[in-house]
Amino acid sequence: MATITADLTTGYAVEIRAGNHIWQADEPLDAGGTDLGPSPYELLMSAVAACTCITVSMYCQRKGWKLHSISARYELDKVHANDCEDCDDAEQGRIDRVRSEIFIEGDFDDEQRARLSQVARRCPVHKTLDHGVTFTTECLFVG
After folding, report:
1. Which of 2, 40, 77, 86 is most deeply buried (CB count within 10 A of its CB)?
2. Global pTM?
3. CA distance 95 to 40
4. In angstroms, what CA-CA distances link 23 with 46, 67, 74, 116, 142?
């Protein structure tokens, strides 16, 4: 489905490639990076934000609903498990919590607004993160 290649360049800066697209990731200055691009967590949140905007837009297009604009703000933070009232299965220690605000502008009735609120939470990237991911990692040593 999606193949990404990442190569460390200088310091913590990483060049990322997907098909014909090339961009950078890095750590901020206060974390020892050179701030040449977004951090890995910022890239993760940008994937969910982009997917949310695209999913809502596609849904409106399929339904013939007039969407004027959509924007999304996502924030990831680490919180103590016992401080998170909304978190299921919170273990001791810290957990990742994502907060989002989706700004949808258009002429929608109450039923359409309710449906778009559901659709915004069901973009494929959101669902992937929400359901958990299984990693299979193989380290190949060269040289």
Report:
1. 40
2. 0.85
3. 17
4. 13, 30, 20, 31, 25
